[in-house]
Amino acid sequence: MTTLAIVSPCYNEEEVLAGSARRLTALLDSLAARGEISTDSFVLFVNDGSRDTTWNIITELHAADNRIKGVNLARNVGHQNALMAGYMSARHRADIVVSVDADLQDDLDAIPRMITLYKEGNDIVYGVKVKRDADPLLKRLSAVTFYKLQSGMGVECVYNHADFRLMSRRALDILAEYGERNLYLRGLIPQIGLQTATVDDVISEREAGSSKYTLGKMLSLALDGITSFSVKPIYGIMYLGIVFIFISMLIGVYVLHALVAGTAVPGWSSLILSVWFVGGMVLVSIGVIGVYIGKIYKEVKHRPLYNIKEILD
Known about the structure:
By secondary structure, the protein is an alpha/beta fold. The chain has helices at about 15-35, 55-65, 80-90, 110-120, 135-150, 170-175, 185-190, 215-230, 230-260, 270-300; strands at about 5-10, 40-45, 70-75, 95-100, 125-130, 160-170, 195-200, 310. The chain starts with a strand and ends with a strand.
């Protein structure tokens, strides 16, 4: 019988945690009653250094129902690292792991379909958002920009997929071999190469609280994904340099023509404008290269992605 683990990273989710635990355990009951999963299946909440009572609530939930497990990280390490902590904690105790955010805006009804696709031979099943009317307009627009920007920069990822997915133990064992410090699972998991499938994911409204995935965090995640999986920005700098050289040649021709024709007018405006423009582009170019160097700096240190403070099992 297949053992299922549902991994859910949490950051300041005290308002929704009790309701989420109730819905997830009810899902386990339903799946077990139909014989789709074993009764050893469980829910694993990963507390990502929350500042509220999230861990206290997880502790109470565990005391009331042993199927609810908990991992308490020593500090806030970000969603991707917290999710990785959940994956690695659950992979030795489950045949399949489904990751879902604690607010449960993703469609839980898609999980039975994920399990069916796994039994048909798929090691990874992605939840792809087909309808997200529950999200604010700004979030929907920023999400579309997020995915198109990644695609344009050559990052291999599943369009409109966040982190709602099923992974088999074999897929997780392969993922564990990736020792990257700059973790971007949405770009990393498609590189595993095992058989995959997708299910429709209809986004619903949060029952309480507000989303912790702000616009700033989404932009930071996009930048992290692009610089971790694509060198196109560096090539873009090189091409931009070639364009500048071409423009400077045209300006040189114009200056020579003005000198010969006697139409040259002394002035600083064009000179200062050129200096500021080129200087700004140089600084941007150095900044892009610096981001890549900074990532190399982090990688060579081989520091742990997370430290576990406490486990409820």
